[in-house]
């Protein structure tokens, strides 16, 4: 069995591919060698009332955004085309198929159908059965690929799971702090829900997608915060981030925290006070 340097993900159960594959998830994308999107016979042109298909499109869009190499075929190729903005046409007795996305290079045609096309990190084959030469070529490219730079600050941090662990550590410190502890005790009853919301906020702030929507000022209004609270919050946040992640990985997180603290201090003066 051929080996690839990082996990190879698949959106559908797949056997006989010649390498070990694991089921894809958004959390696994940052460390993936590549993403396979096999033909599954499910619709692509009309996915109304199909949250599973929307989730798959979101996953594939995340892979393209991170420039994870993608090999898609059959309905998978149509999904890839749709993510890249191509028109998808219902198949007649066969899988739905996508027109060539703008900027794609079409290498083979089958009538009006772009049978093999490439666009950015995506290689797409409209046929339901993947040719052996495309499989071999894709795996060879994965073996030769240079390590990818992180696609977002969230990836630099280590992903959502690592971020959540770090935030839990920070809140443990804050709750034990003589200055901040009473503030949190007065305003937070359900800590798991609070941690969910704050993790979603930081996922969004670090480029991980629209997991959080809200207004930072309104969330903190009426808490009775002063400049001393904010400075202590930032100091504990930096300590937790650097202890959990290391200074280099913590840098994008702490930089954003300090920028937001600065804005909060300016907008809420004199109640919070400007942070030096």
Task: Provide structural commentary.
The chain has 276 residues and is α/β, with parallel strands linked by helices. The protein has ten helices and nine strands. A seven-stranded mixed β-sheet has the order 2-1-3-4-9-8-7, with helices on both faces. Strands 5-6 form a two-stranded antiparallel ribbon. Helix 1 links the parallel strand 3 and strand 4. The radius of gyration is 23 Å and the shape is elongated. The chain starts with 7 loop residues before the first strand and ends in a 9-residue tail after the last helix.
Q: Could you state the order of secondary-structure elements as H and E?
A: EEEHEHEEEEEHHHHHHHH
Question: Which structural category do the helix and sheet elements fall into?
Answer: alpha/beta
Percent in helix: 40-55%
Number of helices: 10
| Strand residue percentage | 5-15%
Gross geometry: elongated
- The N- to C-terminal Cα distance equals 58 Å
Care to count the β-strands?
9
Mean pLDDT across all amino acids = 83
What is this structure's SSE topology?
Blueprint: E1 8-10, E2 21-23, E3 34-37, H1 51-65, E4 70-73, H2 75-83, E5 88-89, E6 97-98, E7 105-110, E8 113-119, E9 122-125, H3 132-144, H4 153-157, H5 160-176, H6 181-187, H7 191-205, H8 216-220, H9 227-245, H10 247-267
Parallel strand pairs: 1-2, 1-3, 3-4, 4-9
Antiparallel strand pairs: 5-6, 7-8, 8-9
Keywords:
single chain, about 280 residues, alpha/beta, about 45% helix, elongated, disordered C terminus
